[in-house]
Amino acid sequence: MKELVQYLARSLVSNPDAVEIKESANDSAQVLELKVAKEDLGRIIGRQGRTVKSIRTLLNTAASRDNRRVVLEIVEES
Fold first, then answer.
1. Which positions ≥6 away from 56 have C-beta within 8 Å?
2. What is the largest CA-CA distance in the chain?
3. Average pLDDT over residues 48-61
4. HSE-up of 41 (CA within 13 Å, CB side)?
5. Taking a C-beta distance cutoff of 8 angstroms, is the pair 48, 54 a contact?
6. pLDDT, tens only, 8-51
7. Three-state secondary-structure class, residue 59
8. How far apart are CA 45 and CA 48, in angstroms?
9. Confidence of residue 78 (pLDDT cuts 50, 70, 90)
10. What is the CATH number of the domain that holds 42?
11. What single DSSP character describes residue 66?
12. How many separate domains does the chain show?
């Protein structure tokens, strides 16, 4: 799942070297935290969140094949 998100994120942003994904797991789901450069945040989120919603849909479809649950979180640097 991490590789899928990494591929999609790197394809969308202007600065693919700044894409970082941290993976963790809890009892019910696998959590992926996506961090991109500040200027690429809008590209990942998209208009009204459409892009990130599409990424989450693809991720959940791929995870459902393995009967798993995956949560994608976008991390903003402050």
1. 72
2. 36
3. 95
4. 10
5. no
6. 999 999 999 999 999 999 888 999 999 999 999 999 999 999 99
7. helix
8. 8
9. low
10. 3.30.300.20
11. T
12. 1
Q: Residue 18 CB: number of other CB atoms within 10 A?
A: 15
Q: Using alpha carbons, list the distances in angstroms from residue 75 to 20, 22, 35, 56, 64.
A: 10, 10, 5, 15, 24
CA distances from 8 to 4, 18, 51, 59, 72 (A): 6, 14, 10, 10, 13
Structural domain including 18 reads 2-75
d(CA 43, CA 66): 29
d(CA 13, CA 27): 32
Terminal C-alpha separation, the chain = 26
pLDDT in tens, 13-22: 999 999 999 9
Q: How confident is the model at residue 58 (pLDDT cuts 50, 70, 90)?
A: very high
Token digits for 63?
């995870």
